[in-house]
Specification:
This protein is an alpha+beta fold. It has twelve helices and eleven strands. The chain is globular and about 60 Å long.
């Protein structure tokens, strides 16, 4: 996070001390620090504009393709140099715009790669902008005054995080934490508002995402509060982790299930309750546990419980 802050200071204010912090980190003996600093330097528009053109030692940090710029990070993710040439871009992503609009977005973009467990923003914090999730998964949660955590959802690649708060100017309504190593594209609130005013395509896409988020929140409230018992909520949660199958007799394996604590935070319950409910589902032969793998044995029965 410190290196990311240095990158932002360098890009916005041409703070030379911040730039040298990045250069120093790029020469670190620690592989992860070195790769992350090189990634930030490779995406610097100020370097591209020629701030280091007189130094041959720093030529390797230019945005033009080099072995280091095209290498994979310690997290196994390809470094993204530009939104225009990004191979992860899809039409259903928030960045799935026409080439002309994509170039405008690229000018305002700050690319970064973060490890699992990194905090993007915190509930109650003033909005700095949005983070477009290029790849990876991000956990969105809220916390009560008593400290009880409720996981609202797990954001997937292509989503714009913090969009509602950035547009309205109100504080972030949730906390965003990376659940896996992630590639992110940060756009400041000022740049976002300029894009919304100048590019109608961005405005339409933002409206579509906000509408989708509203509909998703309505469904979650219905599922969490109105419709089901704790057993039904847990059954629904397990079903959402398993895609539909054509034959009802087929089993489905959840190879990376959530912990009991995470399940409890998703359904608004306690870890002890989730452990007891899973034990009951196992006794009823609806699920089976194989080490860290959870197997759904009877999908129709689990669907009936979730109704």
């Amino acid at each position: 996070m410190y290196l990311l802050a240095c990158h932002v200071e360098w890009e916005r204010r041409a703070d030379a001390s911040s730039a040298w912090e990045l250069v120093s980190a790029a020469r670190s003996c620690h592989e992860g620090t070195r790769a992350y600093a090189l990634s930030l330097l490779a995406h610097s528009r100020r370097i591209e504009a020629g701030f280091y053109e007189s130094s041959s030692a720093e030529d390797r940090y230019q945005r033009s393709p080099t072995p280091e710029a095209s290498m994979k990070t310690p997290y196994g993710l390809d470094i993204i140099e530009s939104c225009v040439s990004c191979k992860l871009n899809h039409s259903h992503f928030f960045c799935g715009f026409s080439p002309a609009v994509l170039r405008s977005q690229d000018v305002a973009s700050h690319h970064s790669i973060l490890p699992s467990g990194a905090i993007l923003f915190v509930e109650g914090q003033a909005p700095r902008g949005i983070s477009i999730l290029c790849s990876g998964k991000v956990k969105l949660s809220t916390t009560s005054k008593e400290g009880k955590v409720l996981i609202l959802k797990q954001a997937e690649a292509g989503e714009a995080l913090g969009l509602s708060a950035a547009i309205s100017g109100t504080n972030y309504e949730m906390t965003a934490e990376t659940a896996t190593p992630c590639q992110l594209n940060f756009i400041s609130r000022t740049d976002l508002m300029n894009l919304l005013q100048s590019e109608s395509e961005v405005g339409v896409r933002a409206a579509q995402w906000l509408s989708r988020d509203f509909q998703g929140a309505y469904r979650d409230i219905h599922d969490l509060v109105l419709a089901r018992s704790s057993a039904g909520k847990l059954a629904r949660l397990l079903l959402t982790c398993a895609p539909g199958v054509e034959q009802e007799s087929l089993e489905f394996r959840l190879r990376s299930p959530m912990t009991h604590e995470e399940m409890a935070q998703r359904i608004g319950s306690s870890r002890e309750t989730v452990t007891r409910l899973l034990r009951d589902l196992k006794k009823r032969r609806l699920i089976r546990l194989e080490g860290a793998t959870l197997v759904i044995r009877d999908r129709p029965a689990l669907e009936a419980l979730a109704v």
